[in-house]
Amino acid sequence: MVAHRGASGHKPEHTLAAYELALEQGADGLECDVRLTADHELVCVHDRTIDRTSDGTGAVSELTLAQLREYNFGGWHTSGLDAQVLTLRELLELTLDWKRPVRLFIETKHPVRFGGLVEQLLLAELQRFGVATPASADHSRAVVISFSTAGVWRIRRNAPMLPTVLLGDTARFLGGSAATAVGATAIGPSITTLREHPDAVDRAAAAGRATYCWTVDERRDATYCADLGVGWIATNYPDRVLGWLAA
Ligand code: G3P
Ligand code: CA
Question: What Pfam family is a match, any one (predicted)?
């Protein structure tokens, strides 16, 4: 079970507090979105700008890490938390130091416009932590996920042992040709699309691919995914999903 942006149903998304809570609640996977700052640091922010999730404004790509650190990324949330922007490095430290093995699902947001720089910096960061060349995809502590075929393809070309999820949300996508073309090890449809195409999980498995489904916050959807054999269920409420699936 993958905590989507951390336990983001309870704490402000992409903050250390959200990820720590997800781990305490028993998540065995964490999802984060990464974007490049003006000074080429990878930070965990979903939107193009910081307007929604901080007390600052502006595009992540036009702000330095030092500038981003001046803003509060927790105050917008009902929890009223104070939180600094989280870097990918800080999240990797938390994930890899946790008391049980946890996988980090790193989503590259719109990497194409940076011409491969996002993937290059991401792989350098994974190398720094010794997790860029796992013995097998099954043993990998990092998974790179993206809606970008170019983004997935660059990871496969430069780090062939790293598992990858090609995200997508159309019937055509579920046909698997794009995933095959870029060598993705898994497909990642939304729960809405998977509801319309329940055979997608078996078809992916027949092609040797796992399925990652987002974002599953309802009990009936969680049990639906489990019954279909979805490998990774991403949710904003790890506590709830773990409870439902254990019942
Ligand atoms: O985990 C995949 C999912 O996060 C994709 O959608 O918009 O939440 O990044 P989004
Ligand atoms: Ca995401």
Answer: GDPD
